[in-house]
Amino acid sequence: MTSCLVPASPVGQIYTRMAMGEDATVPNFVSAHPTLRSLGAQITALQTALAALSNRDFTDEPAIVQGVLASLTPEKIAAAIPPTMAKQVADELARRLVA
What we know:
Layout: H1 10-20, H2 36-54, H3 61-71, H4 74-80, H5 83-98
């Protein structure tokens, strides 16, 4: 049993040309739907765009640091120190200020 989509059969040849966006009977044929060639070109363009994006660094570290530091007030820092460490922190600060 032979399939009509075998490239050697006439129907298979027509199917292959249609999939590729070709028509030997119409000189200026333009496919109304995506063809294997147009899909291949789109995939190649997508791969190129993704490769370009994958090599970029979207993290703005200085802006992150600036935002974190802007939100740190002495009160917030003091509130973040556990009470058990508060005396140790105060003693260390006092030692450093004296030096």
